């Protein structure tokens, strides 16, 4: 399938009908071959599975194959750097994640969102404060009240110092006026295992990551740290609904981006294909089955989202003493 974008201009009056009239036509013959989608994390994870499902969904709208390639290392920095430095012709796109807006402030990435042009946001997953099902805290209010009365006592397991769920927990901590004891692990999985084993009191990881244990009755989600409930955990109220607090707690997200010098006409074609792919029922069914949220933003809205996240973490990370030395 060939996409053509044409811009036509013509002089007014009689000259407009003349063969020598001023008219121009700009065409973009794209895509003519397969598109490579760089995933900056290992196969089998949430970013990889989302990317593969999205690639399959977008192919029918692009008319060409979308091939997923995993480029791991540096907490996502290696793959995103390679994507930013690839040829700006639209044939290499990158699955950008929230770490694009955190790693630069941590001194762990040479690039920022400004090295890319946004194409589309397709996923967003909020944090869910989760405890064991047999814990003493039945509500988020009880949990925060206990934290206020016992500063620094509650142990919150996270996915690593400076990782998104650590930063999200600190944002909640500051907004609620409490103090947690943050315990880092090598990913959300080990943090959840520690919670199940009674080694930490709670985890502030994504709703999708605790869904299975909540569904089987091993864990209890106290609140969704977002402005709206999560489809992954139906019936679990938001932080504001539970406590009245309005705290902008960051969550994780995934989207498509291309090198900053990619022509706008090509970006437009990619945006159309990936947003349509993310809207396909098959993709929605896959994401729903796996507890992953869908949030679709076009290039312009995704660009603003990137800036907002970059600015937010630019203030938060230095406050944690985790910024560039």
TrEMBL record:
CDD domains: PBP2_Bug_TTT (cd07012). Pfam families: TctC (PF03401). Gene3D superfamilies: Bordetella uptake gene, domain 1 (3.40.190.150), Periplasmic binding protein-like II (3.40.190.10). Belongs to the UPF0065 (bug) family. This is Tripartite tricarboxylate transporter substrate binding protein. It comes from Paenibacillus piri.
